[in-house]
């Protein structure tokens, strides 16, 4: 089992509730309360985690502040060495962590293992990149600005912000946690993790891998509990110096309350796929299905609306439908393509979008079928702008197709959305691809491929309600640091003679 062996310390054997992590120790909350985690497949309680109190959160942040001051004095090579060690431990224990992902968020078993391995690779890459980025500074001289002699030398370097609060989402609770942890730690910060409820146990296992690597006490912490009780307390805490959040509308509320601290937020998308008449339709169909239905569509970068030129629409829809028919449906333990969505409320929301489209006349290529949280893949054609599915993010295995009569119509629909995370365009004409990409109001545009966050060192950002700031390893390191300058004032101008 996941909670045996090296992970035995993270669960209380008496009541079978997973502990939270603070000051280098696994602890039980004084609240004596727990939060239940429902298995999406069985719809019964799978795990329970501690319901931390505000007092415990406050103490954890105070400890993190103290730990950070010492960590900032730790040599870069030593920080990187410990991150490499954590990455190796993480990959060594990929199977028990993946087992948690299967049970908590119904991620197919193979994809769950891939997430953990990818996370280890991200940590190692971040360690190496951090040494390079943070090991360099700038040397500026004053006489490059008009009216100045060379009487001032300016030395700039990157310094840590302090305590970073990391809040990852349910769909990648390990990978999107380490994408925040590793940059924060290599940059000299401490970090407090608030994992999502669904995915919390996988995140706790991941944090234990950092514990086993030997990081200083208090440097990395993980508090669990109800967002209604500790959510605002965390995000508005004066001891927090930076927030990295991935999720939904909650991020907008956080940004309004957080005050003057750096924010890194990715808040979802309605990623549009524009298919032109000259596109390779087989390539487009394969990517649309992969992009739209991978992990049951529960991805921020999933294809969420297809905008196809009318002339090739029939052919494309037939090809997409043929690919959809190949998808397997069932439990995550069987590595099925389509598994139960994360919660019953998510399934109900998706069903509401589907029923609205049906009432308004969308063409259904499959009969709508649902069993509990499991929703069979559904392709909807002839979707119109007056349907909710044309604009709202289903986060499920439902793909709407809107037929367009011009490229401008497709761009206008994409840009009318309040989201702007990613988009994609399929065409054989590179000139058209560039022109359309420039016109799309999204953080990233993929040409002849489905939207995707990775590789993890690529910049990843959204416009409008899709977020603020930019992710990706390099961008995250830079975002979690601040530039500091030291200016040397010389008594007389000084010039290097060559």
From TrEMBL:
Q: Which UniProt keywords apply?
A: Cytoplasm, NADP, Oxidoreductase
Occurrences of domain Aldehyde dehydrogenase (ranges): 26-486
GO CC annotation: cytoplasm
Query: What EC number(s) has UniProt assigned to this enzyme?
Result: 1.2.1.9
- Compartments, as annotated in UniProt: Cytoplasm
Its recorded reaction(s) are: D-glyceraldehyde 3-phosphate + NADP(+) + H2O = (2R)-3-phosphoglycerate + NADPH + 2 H(+)
Task: List, from the UniProt record, the residues annotated as the active site of this protein.
Answer: 266
Q: Which GO MF terms are attached to this record?
A: glyceraldehyde-3-phosphate dehydrogenase (NADP+) (non-phosphorylating) activity; lactaldehyde dehydrogenase (NAD+) activity
Q: Which InterPro entries match?
A: Ald_DH/histidinol_DH, Ald_DH_C, Ald_DH_CS_CYS, Ald_DH_CS_GLU, Ald_DH_N, Aldehyde_DH_dom, ALDH-related_metabolic_enz
The record's family statement is:
Belongs to the aldehyde dehydrogenase family.
Q: What is this protein called?
A: NADP-dependent glyceraldehyde-3-phosphate dehydrogenase
Query: Which species?
Result: Tripterygium wilfordii (Thunder God vine)
Lineage here is: Eukaryota, Viridiplantae, Streptophyta, Embryophyta, Tracheophyta
């Amino acid at each position: 089992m996941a909670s045996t062996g090296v992970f035995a310390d993270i669960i209380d054997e008496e009541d079978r509730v997973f502990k939270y992590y603070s000051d280098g120790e696994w602890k039980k909350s004084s609240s004596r309360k727990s939060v239940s985690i429902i298995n999406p497949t069985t719809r019964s309680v799978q795990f329970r985690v501690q319901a931390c109190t505000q007092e415990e959160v406050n103490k954890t942040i105070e400890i993190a502040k103290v730990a950070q001051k010492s960590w900032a004095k730790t040599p870069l090579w030593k920080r990187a060495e410990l991150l490499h060690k954590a990455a190796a431990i993480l990959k060594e224990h990929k199977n028990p962590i993946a087992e948690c992902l299967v049970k908590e968020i119904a991620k197919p078993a193979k994809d769950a293992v891939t997430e953990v391995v990818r996370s280890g690779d991200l940590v190692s890459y971040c360690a190496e990149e951090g040494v390079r980025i943070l090991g360099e500074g700038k040397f500026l001289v004053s006489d490059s600005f008009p009216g100045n002699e060379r009487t001032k030398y300016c030395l700039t370097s990157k310094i840590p912000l302090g305590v970073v609060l990391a809040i990852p989402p349910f769909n990648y609770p390990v990978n999107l946690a380490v994408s925040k942890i590793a940059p924060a730690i290599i940059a000299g910060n401490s970090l407090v993790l608030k994992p999502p409820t669904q995915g919390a146990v996988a995140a706790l296992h991941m944090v234990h891998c950092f514990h086993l690597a030997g990081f200083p006490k208090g440097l990395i912490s993980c508090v669990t509990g109800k967002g209604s009780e500790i959510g605002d307390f965390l995000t508005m805490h004066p001891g927090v110096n930076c927030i990295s959040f991935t999720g939904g509308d909650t991020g907008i509320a956080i940004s309004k309350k957080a005050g003057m601290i750096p924010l890194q937020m990715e808040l979802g998308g309605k990623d549009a796929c524009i298919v032109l008449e000259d596109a390779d339709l087989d390539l487009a169909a394969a990517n649309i299905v992969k992009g739209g239905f991978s992990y049951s569509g529960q991805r921020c970068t999933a294809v969420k609306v297809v905008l196809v030129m009318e002339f090739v629409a029939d052919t494309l829809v037939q090809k997409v439908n043929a690919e959809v028919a190949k998808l397997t449906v069932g439990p995550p333990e069987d590595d099925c393509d389509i598994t139960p969505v994360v919660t019953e409320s998510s399934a109900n929301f998706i069903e509401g979008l589907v029923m609205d489209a049906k009432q308004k006349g969308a063409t259904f290529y499959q009969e709508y079928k649902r069993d509990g949280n499991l929703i069979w893949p559904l392709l909807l054609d002839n979707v119109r702008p007056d349907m909710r599915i044309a604009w709202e993010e289903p986060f499920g295995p439902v793909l709407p197709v809107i037929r367009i009569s011009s490229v401008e119509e497709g761009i206008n629909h994409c840009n009318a959305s309040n989201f702007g995370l990613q988009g994609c365009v399929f065409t054989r004409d590179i000139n058209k691809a560039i022109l359309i990409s420039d016109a799309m109001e999204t953080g990233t545009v993929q040409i002849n491929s489905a939207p995707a966050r990775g590789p993890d060192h690529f910049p990843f950002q959204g416009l409008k309600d899709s977020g603020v700031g930019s992710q990706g390893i390099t961008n995250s390191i830079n975002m979690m640091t601040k530039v500091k300058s030291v200016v040397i004032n010389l008594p007389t101008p000084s010039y290097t003679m060559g």
